[in-house]
Amino acid sequence: MRGTGSPEAFDVVVVGSGTGLLAAVTASELGLRVLVVEKSQYLGGSTAMSGGGFWIPGNSVLADLGVADSRERASAYLDALVGDRAPRERRESFLDHGPAAVGGLRRNAPHTWQHMREYPDYFPEVEGGSAFGLFALSLSWAWTTLGLLMRTPQAVMSVGTVVLFPLTLASNVFVRPQTMPGWLQAFVNVNPVSHLVTAERGLMDGQPAAGQVAWVLLASAALVAVFAPATTYLYGRRR
Which of 19-33, 48-62, 64-78 is most confident? Predict the structure, then answer.
């Protein structure tokens, strides 16, 4: 290596400390000399912003918990979603080697992994549809009202970020409320995003919670009742 005063030899050089870190960990486990090169002062790359979840069928976390899963099911699921839009060999390789990657992480990383049972696949076959689209449509009236009140789209985006970002993070979207401090659980339990997510997951899992679904429908109706007339009024004034 130049500039270090003395040359060094490495078996594997990983450029970037994002997903390539798994390659570095695997090579190190095999006894190879590894160098990770990162241009910034932070590790993780884009994965540092991740919620820490992964979708890898047949992994050892599921096996240890006795969760029924099969490669055939996952392969059929991906075939139906992807079709001929990407080489089939790529997803077959993912299914072949994904469980081994999880095993490497569990052996070499100080993390505790858990199965989020209430997180179904993104595209399950569900009768009755989803409450999420209805709530999003209702919430759009609020942003339309803000758009008519503010001068620039950037201002609307800034307000949306300030409001939605904390509501999303302080909810049950990424983490189970039981693992949070008591004071944060109290807010999560009344957070409208938490009610929405619980209703959504129940519908996707085929076990809808009637109370949560009713809450989402009532909240959607309330949003429309308040912001639809306000939007119409403000739009009429601008004209």
Answer: 19-33
CA-CA distance, 62 to 115, in Å (whole number)? 7
Count of CB atoms situated within 10 Å of the CB of 213: 19
Whether 183 and 227 map to the same domain: the answer is yes
Q: Using the CB atoms, write b or e for 139-177: b if 16+ within 10 Å.
A: bebbbbbbbbeeeeeeebeeeeeeeeeebeebbbbebeb
Q: Which domain does 182 fall in, by range?
A: 132-238
**Both 106 and 152 in a single domain?**
no
* Domain match, 107 and 195 both: no
In this prediction, residue 135 carries a pLDDT of: 62
Give the global pTM: 0.53
Q: Residue 167: what residue type?
A: L
Collapsing DSSP to helix, strand or coil, 224 comes out as helix
Q: Which burial class, exposed, middle or buried, applies to 41 when counting CB atoms under 10 A from its CB (0-12, 13-18, 19+)?
A: exposed
Nearest Cα to 146, choosing from 134, 155, 137, 133?
A: 155
- Write the single-letter amino acid at 21: L
Do 144 and 221 lie in a common domain?
Answer: yes
Q: What is the dihedral of CA 208, 143, 165, 48, to 10 degrees?
A: 100
